[in-house]
Every structure is written in structure tokens, then in C-alpha cells.
Amino acid sequence: MEFGYSPAQISMQMESKKFALEEMTELSHLFEVDVFVREKLFEKMAQKGFLTLSIPEKKQSKDTLSLMLAIKEISKVDAGIGVAMSVTNMVAEAIEIYGSDQQKEKYFPLFRNGQCVPASFALTEKSAGSDPKHLLTTATLDAVDDDFFWISGEKQFITNGDISGVLIVFAKTFDKKKEGITAFLIDRETPGLQVSKIENKLGLLSINLVSLTFDNCRISRGQILGDLGQGLKVAFSSLDRGRLGVAAQAIGIAEAAYEKALQYSQAREQFGKPLCENQVIAFKLADMHVKLSAAKLLLCKACWLCDKGRGVTLAASEAKLYASEAANEIVTEALQVYGGYGYTKDYPLEKYFRDARVTTLYEGTSEIQRIVISRQLLNLTAQAETF
What we know:
- The protein has 387 residues and is α+β, with helices and mostly antiparallel strands.
- It has helices at 7-24, 28-31, 35-47, 64-77, 79-98, 101-113, 231-267, 279-307, 313-338, 349-357, 366-385, and strands spanning 119-122, 138-141, 148-159, 166-175, 178-187, 193-198, 209-220, 224-225, 269-270, 273-274.
- It folds into three domains: 7-117, Acyl-CoA dehydrogenase/oxidase, N-terminal domain (Butyryl-Coa Dehydrogenase, subunit A, domain 1), CATH 1.10.540.10; 120-232, Butyryl-CoA Dehydrogenase, subunit A, domain 2 (Beta Barrel), CATH 2.40.110; 233-382, Butyryl-CoA Dehydrogenase, subunit A, domain 3.
- The strands form three sheets. The chain has a four-stranded mixed sheet, covered by helices on one side.
- The protein is globular and about 85 Å long.
């Protein structure tokens, strides 16, 4: 097998890079303050197919790496938009895997023409972030008509929950007095669904994180995604893919910071020579490049396993953990190369610094990734001992 990207993957990378440079670069300062500009961009991204890359066309095999390359290129220009792209593709893929024919017929055309984007994944609550089994949001069966549920509760830190066309919402349900968690597809205009708070964040200012309240939202049984009580299966499989998206975002931020630092070190002179000719700076650049290369290889491996239909939980957590931690290290060192200039808004390093920080927090903190990885390793060891 030849090592490297396929022609289709290279083409996708080039197409997404071209789109990011032409459609996003000049407007990047507006994405952080103007929701309307963002919505128009999401419509363009949908029409270009960037928000449904996780859904293979007929007769085409799944190509997760192409999606991740596209997310990386978009994130190099604006990581917040990269997050929205990743989450929307994650929701689309969950519908593709677990959705009914009717759900696919309803939502896929809306995703592709831009009428239903971005999408949101509503799992996190105040008391249930890293521990989704303790959700407080409930879906109670209608006492008169058991084709309907009443959903009540609150979700927190929901990406683009204020403008998303559709959300996957997770709630506790009871089937024959047995408690479980169920995933529901809920349209944004559903009566009783309200935005209760928009978070004031450090970074990723081109997307909103919001709290949502569900006040007796009437939801039909046909809006269940997957099976009743099987919501955690939907959540955990989606989170594996979501972690690949975070790794791609982190790599995009880190690659942008590295490239800027490299260019700056070649142009800026100190003590009569370019910065890059000082060994301390040259070694920083070398370390940044090695960390980037390692992060990319971990992501490629995870994508390969995903497309082969093999277990990806371990590889996804490894890629997410390493890429997010490395991105923070790379951006910090890149800012150091710029010196005091890197701390000003005249240069992009302060934005990379703010945006990189959260990659170690969402879709499972670095500590959670280590828990996942260690449990996977111990499980693999236990299995090996049975042979």
C-alpha cells in the first residue's frame, strides 16, 4: 500500500483550502460579531457539500480522512467555523447510521441545500458533562397518546444552538419502568424550546455556545433517532467521530500558527540575522513540525480504522488527546517566536492562542481521553490474557 493521500483526498483538501481563502479570509473578523454573515457562510458551505461529507454519495465508500482534511483547512482560517462544520457532519452521520428512511428523506435534502444548517448535538447539562448517564432532561410519554413525548429540561454549552436547524437531543425515558436515555431529532422552531443563555467565551467567537430550555416540548415517536432507550449508543459512537473532528480542528490551528511563526522568523531580523538562524528559534520550529507530523499520523490512523469498520474509540481518543495538547504547545511556542507582537491583535497568534485552548476541553477533556485510553488498553490486555 502506498503511503500518502489519495487523489480524491488531495482534491478535497485543495477545494476546501480554496473555499476558506476565497470565502472566509476577508470576512473572518465579521464571523465573531455578525450571526447573519455566519449563516450565509453556512449556506454556501452546505451547497458546496462541506456539511455533508460524512454521508457518502451512492456507490461511494466512506472517506473520513477527506472530511478531516476539509475541517483542518477551514479551521486554519477560522476554527469556530471548523467546529460548526464538524458538529453538523457528526449529526448528519448519526442520522445516516441510526435514522429511519423518513428521517433521512426529510433532513438530508435540507442539509444539502443549506436550509437546516448548522446542526447541534445537545447532550451536555450542568450536572452531566463528562458523565452523560446522569442527565436530568426527561422525555415523558403522553398519558393519552403514546405516539408522543413531552420533553423538559435544560442543556448547556450547545454549539450553535441559537441558529441550528435541527438538534439531536438526549433525554431520559422510561420503557416498562426501565430507565434509559433516548436520542431525539428536534427542529429548532419546536414550541417550548428556548435559548436561555449565550456564553461569553474566551475563544471560538465565531460560534455561539448556548443554554437551551425545553418546557414541555411535544415530540412525536417518529422523532426518535435509533431505538427507545438506546441513546447512549448514538452518543458514544457520535463522540468517537466528534473527537476526530476536534483533532482536525486542533491540527488546523496548530498548522496555521506554525506557518506564521516560520514566515515571521525568516522575515524578522535580530542581532543582524533572521530569527530562524538563531538555534533556539530553529529548534522551536523543529519541535513544532515534529508534533504536527505526529498529530497528523494519529488522525490518519484513526480515519483509516473508521473507514474499515473497525473499533475507533482508542484511536480517536489518542488522536484527540495528542492533537489538542500539541496544538496548545505549538501555538504557545509560535507566540513566543513573535515576542511581544504575538500578544497584540495586529497579528493572528492571539486568536490561535484563544481558539486552541478549548480543544483540550470539549468532546471530552484531556483527562477523560486518558480515562478512555487506559480503559481500552486494560480491556485489550484482559482479552489477550484469555487466549
